[in-house]
Specification:
The chain has about 425 residues and is an alpha+beta fold. The protein has nine helices and 28 strands. Helices cover about 20% and strands about 30% of the residues. Strand 21 and strand 22 form a beta hairpin. The radius of gyration is 22 Å and the shape is globular. The protein starts with a strand and ends in a 9-residue tail after the last strand.
């Protein structure tokens, strides 16, 4: 389980000690005896400058952005299907040099070596069932995933988030135990976001607004969220060379890699993307070919009880022989259907669509050509996408024709944007 949170950058250093993120965790709300401390080298933060293209569109006069400090704390050794209470902390390690790695799990958070600088409200999460298992009594029921894409920060986005929150907020008269069993007796177990999360398009204050919209609801601190990268998540942030904007190439995925931490195979490899790989669409720079972006949060896999999930990147090459393609083959070949009978793929651009928009993009055409055959070969059950701001679901399909051996393709891109945008 990875717990992600942020603090203002002004909290980072105090009195010469080492300030790092940490998480208190335990099965009892009144006694969380374990403290998992992060590593000072793993604090994520970034500065970004607007590209010349974005500067022409800027309305607030802002040319540079400085992010919060982001912490992604991995908590190991948790029991499956178990409720844990937790609290996010910023702690100062007074007696360790700044260069020293201090990752460790420590029983008892009261320790003379550490001082708590700041802390969040207490929350909880329910760990997934073990691979191949379902929840045990009293939560012996089906597992529910919420799937949506293209959320943004529009009024309809807030309405969607409100619907996600429904069933979580309660009426204020419940005990924590009653609230927990209502949440997880009939609620959502995991949220799958199929890309185009905030629609920041390089304006990182929009990412802040999106994070505020999500974190203002209890589900965002209690339910696991898995994300796929969309075209509007690439940001196309300007890259500075000798304090000048290098305008023939852009740095991509800046916010996406710093603000999130998925179950990574290995850290992201993000090279500068030449401007020739982009075109202007509706006033924004959009990718028109595969980008130099591998690993990290753009493709990865995870298991949730009886389901195996593979998250792919529409914008990293998936042509045969590419890094992502070879990794995908290895993942599909390793799936044990006796353990995880459900095999689900999430990728932002749909392979099939009846809508006029986006139907002939390279990312869609090449996915049908190269990905569909291996989806069929390995009996993928569902392929989940966004990109188009509407809903569509096929019957099992192979090569545009109904076929019981093919996956069911679902577009769920109506999270918040209008259908004609």
């Amino acid at each position: 389980m990875i717990v992600s949170f942020s603090f203002l950058p002004g909290c980072s250093w105090q009195n010469g000690g080492v300030a790092v993120g940490a998480v208190r965790v335990g099965e009892d709300a009144q006694d969380m005896p374990h403290l998992v401390i992060g590593d000072i080298t793993e604090v994520k933060k970034y500065n970004a400058s607007l590209t010349p293209h974005q500067l022409m569109r800027a309305t607030n006069g802002q040319k540079h952005y400085f992010s919060d400090d982001y912490y992604h704390i991995e908590i190991n050794g948790l029991k499956p299907g178990t409720r844990y209470y937790y609290q996010c902390l910023l702690v100062q390690a007074n007696h360790l040099p700044r260069q020293q790695s201090i990752r460790r799990s420590q029983s008892g958070y009261q320790n003379n070596n550490y001082q708590i600088i700041s802390m969040s409200k207490q929350s909880y999460f329910l760990t997934p069932p073990a691979p191949g298992e379902w929840y045990s009594p009293p939560l012996d029921r089906s597992i529910k995933f919420a799937v949506l894409g293209d959320l943004a920060t529009r009024p309809h986005s807030a309405e969607t988030v409100k619907n996600l929150e429904h069933g979580f907020s309660g009426d204020g008269g419940e005990t924590p135990e009653q609230q927990f069993h209502r949440h997880h007796g009939q609620g959502i177990d995991c949220i799958l976001l199929a890309g185009d999360l905030s629609y920041a398009n390089g304006d990182h204050t929009v990412w802040d607004k999106w994070m505020d919209m999500m974190s203002g609801n209890s589900f965002f601190s209690t339910v696991p969220v898995q994300v796929a990268v969309g075209n509007h998540d690439l940001d196309s942030a300007a890259f500075l060379v000798n304090n000048s904007i290098k305008d023939d190439a852009v740095e991509i995925g800046v916010a996406y890699e710093n603000r999130f931490h998925m179950p990574q195979v290995q850290p992201a490899i993000r090279n500068l993307a030449p401007n020739a790989l982009f075109h202007e669409d509706s006033g924004y720079l959009q990718a028109k070919d595969f980008l130099p972006y591998e690993w990290g949060n753009v493709y990865y896999s995870f298991t949730f009880g009886p389901s195996k999930h593979i998250v792919l990147s529409s914008y990293s090459s998936f042509l045969p022989g590419s890094v992502q393609y070879e990794w995908l083959l290895s993942e599909l070949q390793s799936v044990d259907r006796s353990v995880t009978p459900w095999l689900i793929v999430m990728i932002h651009c749909p392979l099939y669509t009846t809508f006029k928009i986006h139907h002939n993009e390279i990312f869609t055409r090449e996915a049908r050509r190269h990905l569909e055959p291996i989806f069929v070969q390995h009996t993928v059950n569902f392929v989940l996408s966004g990109h188009i701001h509407s809903y569509m679901r096929t019957i099992p399909t192979i090569d545009f024709k109904p076929n019981a051996r093919g996956p069911i393709y679902i577009i769920q891109g109506n999270g918040g944007r209008a259908a004609n945008e």
